[in-house]
């Protein structure tokens, strides 16, 4: 067990001036401490700190991983805000996925050797230099898969795969509607659809992304427009699968668009995030709209309404063997060069606030990665006059450094 009282909280900005060791990994291998991102309480970006925590050691059946890269997901913004069901107590180390090298294994842990290159799911605690997680959540990665790619792979591709192939039974010639088509899950959905012949993909995204992602989907719509008439102009009978991460009013629209025997899957509620801190109004509006769905209409119209949560399946519902099968199929598609995770940008742990801000600002195309060995880039004076959507609901005054910005390392 980690002792909370032994934590030494270091402000992000203080760490910027520290000289990085020439080889950060070997320099800390024997250390009794490690760096981690800590969420000190639910709220805005200022609740995130880089902290030294006691080094975790693997328990029976666990694998200890020297982390190289961590995935930053939209869900992490919602966790930061406390915008999830039954949020755990803070302080906590956020993050649900990482990639790295096996450093040791606990008792009765078979199948992994020290030095194996792996990716893993973690039930929180992923944003750290070292992570311990049960072996059922750890997967070896191919030699040619980079650590950032591996950290961009697990959550997005497994969720996309299970929704398309296990819940909705995607077949040749079908059509799929996906929101946030330029994001981590959106790009995984687009790539997986391209592995099946003649699948039509309708996507919505912010207009500035259209040029960059137009090749990945068949039809792309401005997320600000009403996409229902646009889809109907092209396909009057509607679509076979709707993947909806914008619960609320989109649920009704999605069900309207479904062909008979079509499947609507609700898997997220990005639209509940309207600013840097939790909005109770968006929360209430979203759930009120979802609850208005009439189940009798579903059977009359021959429509399937489903929900999907990969993390609940993994961590609460004993679904790790199903997930392992999906990972194996996905790794085979990767080996055949049919899919490849898209990394938007790499950020140091100390840059986690800026990285999250990029998602709030809808700036990402593909996945944001926290690169554990990356040194933070120096802060630059912010000459931007744009106000971010996230900034509109600031909860607390930020320090001087919040008037500055860093440039991400774009891959
Ligand atoms: N159920 C599951 O198992 C599961 C697994 C993974 C992810 N998810 C969900 O899938 C969705 C996508 O996840 P992701 O990690 O891949 O994120 P992502 O799509 O990369 O998220 C960023 C993008 O979301 C769009 N967006 C929509 N509403 C937004 C808002 N209120 N604020 C900022 N951006 C918003 C923006 O794209 P545009 O402006 O272009 O629309 C933005 O660039 C999320 O809702 C997430 O919770 C669910």
TrEMBL record:
Q: Which GO terms describe its molecular function?
A: oxidoreductase activity; zinc ion binding
- Indicate, by first and last residue, each region the UniProt record lists as having compositional bias (Acidic residues): 389-400
Please name the InterPro entries in this protein's record.
Answer: ADH-like_N, ER, GroES-like_sf, NAD(P)-bd_dom_sf, Quin_OxRdtase/zeta-crystal_CS, SV-ATPase_mito-regulator
Indicate, by first and last residue, each region the UniProt record lists as having compositional bias (Basic and acidic residues): 401-411
Q: Name one Pfam family in it.
A: ADH_N
Disordered: annotated span: 1-25, 376-411
Record key words, sorted: Oxidoreductase
Annotated Enoyl reductase (ER) domain ranges read 43-370
| Family of this protein | Belongs to the zinc-containing alcohol dehydrogenase family. Quinone oxidoreductase subfamily.
Name this protein carries in UniProt: Enoyl reductase (ER) domain-containing protein
At the highest ranks, the source species' classification is:
Eukaryota, Metazoa, Chordata, Craniata, Vertebrata
